[in-house]
Amino acid sequence: MNSETAIILLAVSVTISSVSLLVSAVSALGLYRTVKKLHSEVAPLIPQAQATLAEAKTTMTETLAEVRSVTERARSVLDLVEAQVQGIDRARTELSTHLNIQGERREIEVEDILGRTQEVVGVVHGSVLRPVREVTGMVAGVKAALQALITGRRPTVDRATQDDEMFI
User: In a 3-state reduction of DSSP, which class is residue 146?
Assistant: First the structure.
């Protein structure tokens, strides 16, 4: 390669570099102007944003305090409800036990009453009804004997009465 060609190539590369740097500087200048313009538009909003953030922080702090207060109240209410439920459960258990015991007692009493009633029925049957049947049988026998003595002969089957049929 020749020195002139090398110088020309070198000059062309330096020119391209310079143009590139110039374009870069113009872009940086445009970017600076855009940022400056954006800054001028955003700068008035910064105090408003800070005020809004301060209000939000205050509101969040108050809300947090209220939530803690409500949570503590809810816990105390839940503790009271739990104590009440346990008391009701104990009362239900005691009442159930008491009712079971009373039911067993009543069952024993009813069995005792039924047993005694059967004894009374047996006594009445043995003491009253048996003698009544015996007397009724004896009266029927005497009646039949008197009738046989009075009429002198036995009635025929055609003339038999209902009492006679039962006796026969």
Answer: helix
Residue 66: per-residue pLDDT: 94
Residue with tokens 């049988």: 137
Question: At 107, phi and psi to the nearest 5?
Answer: -65, -40
Give Cβ neighbours of residue 148 (< 8 Å, ≥ 6 apart).
154
Question: Does pLDDT of 155 surpass 70?
Answer: no
The secondary structure of 33-64, three-state, reads HHHHHHHHHHCCHHHHHHHHHHHHHHHHHHHH
Residue 1 is given by DSSP the state -
Angle at 164 between CA 162 and CA 166, to 5 degrees: 70
pTM: 0.40
Q: Where are the domains of the chain?
A: 1-43, 44-167
Q: Taking a C-beta distance cutoff of 8 angstroms, is the pair 140, 163 a contact?
A: yes
What are the φ and ψ backbone dihedral angles of 20, each rounded to 5 degrees?
-65, -45
Residues 6 or more apart whose CB falls under 8 angstroms from that of 106 comprise none
